[in-house]
Amino acid sequence: MCRVALEVQSPPGNPIGYVKQNWHPYIPKFTIQDEKRNSVLKIIGPFCDCKCFSDVNFEIKSLDETSVVGRISKQWSGYGNEMFTDADNFGVQFPMDMDVKMKATILGACFLIDFVFFEHSKQQDHH
């Protein structure tokens, strides 16, 4: 799989943060960067992103990966919704006093995680 990256802008044309996927053989890892591309936080996903009947959590951690500061969760929405619709429910948790630019960048990371790990087109299913 190719590594992906995302630029978050506010207002349009003004970058406020970046999300880049880090290479790892079996664990999803991302780095959150500020507008100057300084690394600020890490996002570490689970070994397996296909847990049935439970939430899938991506922890937002400090750069040294020792403390958890938040979480992005794909929330289990029931068998019917999971099997027969494309709808996904996500929850995002971060400290209230976090810089608003970092909050927006984490929300961008949520969209990127959804796109990379949970969205499947009909073309992808045939390959």
TrEMBL record:
User: What cellular component terms from Gene Ontology apply here?
Assistant: plasma membrane
Query: Keyword Lipoprotein: yes or no?
Result: yes
**Sorted alphabetically, which Pfam families does this protein's record hold?**
Scramblase
Q: Which GO MF terms does the UniProt record name?
A: phospholipid scramblase activity
Compartments it resides in: Membrane
The record describes the protein's role as: May mediate accelerated ATP-independent bidirectional transbilayer migration of phospholipids upon binding calcium ions that results in a loss of phospholipid asymmetry in the plasma membrane.
Q: What is this protein called?
A: Phospholipid scramblase
- Species of origin: Clupea harengus
Q: What is the lineage of its organism?
A: Eukaryota, Metazoa, Chordata, Craniata, Vertebrata
